[in-house]
Specification:
4-stranded antiparallel sheet, 2 domains, 458 residues, alpha+beta, Peptidase_M20, Aminopeptidase, Alpha-Beta Plaits
């Protein structure tokens, strides 16, 4: 029998202090994955929280940090939602820039300041507490819910792909739902349907065995900086088009519906220009979002050689290095692009060394997928605002483990405020955003239950 959600908001309102106290307990527990500080303790604490709610929970070991896996199963044939999040956090440095202790949650001006408040413990707890709220209101969930909370997202989720490959049967589901990252600056709820991938490489050019005097050995010893500069001229033209053979092969073109969605995303050129510190931004909104979501990038993220200190040191450096991150879009394969990149370098500069530094596949769920419509309806009802549907994020997340390894649709709905300052000093989460996240998750679970009943009836 269908139920309304009238009981949800009163329960959340009555339990605000209780829910904040539970969140604060988790926030106080360090879980810095890059320093292996407090990871196991945080995983155990999260497991205890989930078990107290009635979620069947266990820690699953990986080659790195444990995954906190939980499940609440209605029956085997019911619709199954897989909720993903991460309990690890970034280091708090620089400590001197925090206005309050980084692992002591402090409320100022309606915001919780603490490392992990927005990224991702606050959003993770909103999902867990939503399940508690729904259970206490109605006694049972209308669908199956599974949880995967990893402890290495801040280390590029290095062991998540192997965990997913090894546990495909356990992770069987119909939809993956994630709450991570900041919401849209307009204040409207945001729905993300994909991410760009990322290929990272390092180029190293060598000259002499050591630095030489630029006068005494000038015109004699080659300068490796020029080797890299000459190579870069072969990699990209003056119109920013990448010249690697086959680089643009296999790119999935946006659909007409996705292009229409771009036009509906709020865009204020002056505000964006000010926030990114680039006053000469001259793109219209449609071009801005198309480049950000549907076109690959070819970025030099670092270039180092020779002397960069005060004054002048007249040398011919012995080595030059450049680091690149290449953002890839749907259907581009990082391994394929890397091999094409290597072949290009060998052809034009065979003495330059190319080193693979890591990769994440791109991912995109169809904007026309029926579950996107269901979640959009749930988010709309929860916030009483029209959601912004963004076909892809400009950045990179391990979303492909769900869409490619498991073959599932994946939807990201951020619960944190736009100015959450994740990864920075004074990271924060707006208290209202936390409670709205609880309410939104309840609505998503409820709508998916209605959808599954309708599908079965049909």
């Amino acid at each position: 029998m269908a139920v309304s959600l009238e009981k949800i908001e009163p329960i959340i309102c009555d339990r605000k202090e209780q829910y904040l106290a539970q969140l604060f307990t988790l926030l106080r527990q360090k879980s810095i994955s890059t320093q292996n500080d407090g990871i196991v303790e945080c995983a155990e604490l999260l497991r205890e929280f989930m078990e107290e709610i009635g979620i069947q929970t266990r820690l699953i070991e990986t080659k790195g940090n444990p995954v906190v896996y939980g499940q609440l199963l209605k029956n085997e044939s019911a619709f199954t939602l897989l909720i993903y999040g991460h309990y690890d956090v970034q280091p708090p440095d620089p400590l001197e820039e925090w206005l309050s202790p980084p692992f002591e949650p402090t409320i100022r001006d309606g915001k919780i300041y603490c490392r992990g408040a927005g990224d991702n413990k606050g959003q993770l707890m909103a999902q867990v507490l939503a399940v508690k709220t729904y259970l206490d209101a109605y006694g049972e969930l209308p669908i199956n819910v599974k949880f995967v909370f990893e402890g290495e997202e801040e280390r590029s989720s290095v062991n998540l792909p192997s965990f997913v490959q090894e546990n495909k049967e356990l992770l069987k589901a119909d939809l993956v739902y994630t709450s991570d990252g900041p919401s849209h600056e307009s204040g409207n709820p945001l729905i993300l349907l994909g991410v760009r991938g990322n290929l990272k490489v390092q180029l190293t050019a060598a000259g002499a065995d050591w630095d030489n005097h630029s006068g005494n050995k000038g015109n004699i010893v080659p300068n490796p900086v020029w080797k890299l500069i000459d190579l870069f001229h072969t990699l990209r033209d003056g119109n920013e088009r990448v010249l690697i053979e086959g680089f643009y092969d296999n790119i999935r073109q946006p659909t007409e519906f996705e292009l229409r969605l771009l036009k509906e995303i709020p865009y204020n050129r002056d505000e964006i220009s000010e926030k990114i510190g680039y006053k000469d931004l001259a793109l219209d909104g449609e071009t801005y979002y198309r480049r950000l979501m549907f076109e690959p990038t070819f970025n030099i993220s670092g270039f180092h050689s020779g002397y960069g200190g005060n004054g002048v040191k007249t040398i011919i450096p012995s080595k030059a290095t450049a680091k690149m991150d290449i953002r890839l879009v749907a259907d581009q394969d990082p391994e394929d692009i890397y091999q094409k990149f290597v072949r290009h370098v060998k052809k034009h500069a065979p003495d330059i060394d190319v080193q693979f530094m890591g990769a994440v596949d791109p991912s995109r769920t169809s904007s026309n997928h029926e579950l996107v419509k269901v979640v959009t309806s749930a988010v709309r009802e929860a916030y009483q605002l029209e959601p912004i549907i963004q076909p892809s994020l400009g950045g990179s997340l391990p979303d492909y483990v769900w869409t490619k390894l498991l073959g599932l649709p994946s939807i990201v709905v951020p619960y944190a405020n736009f100015d959450e300052a994740n990864h920075s000093p004074n990271e924060n989460l707006n208290i209202d955003h936390f409670f709205n996240g609880i309410k939104c998750t309840c609505h998503v679970i409820h709508k998916l239950g209605e959808h599954s009943r309708t599908s079965i009836t049909i």
